[in-house]
Amino acid sequence: MDHTQILNLSGMPAAAPSYPKGPYRFVNREYFIILYESDPDAIRQAVPAPLEPAKGNLIAYEFIKMPDSSGFGDYTESGIVIPCLFNGEEVNFTCQMYLDNEPPLTCGREVWGFPKKYGHPELKVIHDTLTGTLKYDDQRVAMGTMAYKPENLIADPMHDELRDPTAIIKKLTTTQVNLKLIPGVNGKLQIAELVAYNMCDTTVKGAWSGPARLHLVPHVNAPVADFPVRKIIGGSHFIADITLPYGRVIHNYLGD
Hints:
The chain is mainly beta and about 260 residues long. The chain has a single domain, classed as Acetoacetate decarboxylase-like. The chain contains 4 helices and 15 strands. The protein has helices at about 5, 40-45, 100-110, 165-170, and strands at about 25-35, 50-55, 60-70, 75-85, 90-100, 115-120, 120-125, 130-135, 140-145, 175-185, 190-195, 200-210, 210-215, 230-245, 250. The strands form 2 sheets. Strands 1, 2, 3, 4, 5, 6, 10, 11, 12, 14 and 15 form an 11-stranded mixed beta sheet that branches. A 4-stranded antiparallel beta sheet has the order 7-8-9-13, with no helix packed on it. A hairpin with a 3-residue loop joins strand 3 and strand 4 (about 75-85). The chain is globular.
């Protein structure tokens, strides 16, 4: 390979890169999100400065099924997102993610700094219940449940902010932030950044809400239970087509 060929590769290994170049399109991406109040000290400890936790001590626990993802195929994710502020802007900090497919795991970590680890999440309908589960090393560490399509959010007076489809799109395209940490060959951090991105080209195909429950089990290598459930706010269920573009660096710990 010559210099130009090397620089045109999307990633490693050179013989067959783990993922193609983006952006990446997701069709029928299905979200099950449980919003709950948790421990403020645990949240503060997990949020990297200069981000600040938003008011309310809120955690969004997510199960996301992606059956049609360009370059990645079919996979499911589960993890923790913390509402935050960055220079006064509302953002979402991705704290933990677990998924069952190598290409999006590798690509997510190398490009955007997603905090991804291999796990076994599932999102499925069991009779009348939307059910999300996460196993790590064959041990269940999370289970969320909600009645299946109880009400359409667009007609739900209990969720006025979600009655308009454009409001749902706004929520899906809110700025997301990751802490990207990559060491160099000497073992010291070569990249230490806050990376931001905004999902785009969104079409909402369905959205529902209802009471939800969430059970978290302590596990040293999948510490989702470090954010204890104090009060469930509610559950949301979305289906959308959406595009993941490349991101931007908003804070460089090695240079700022």
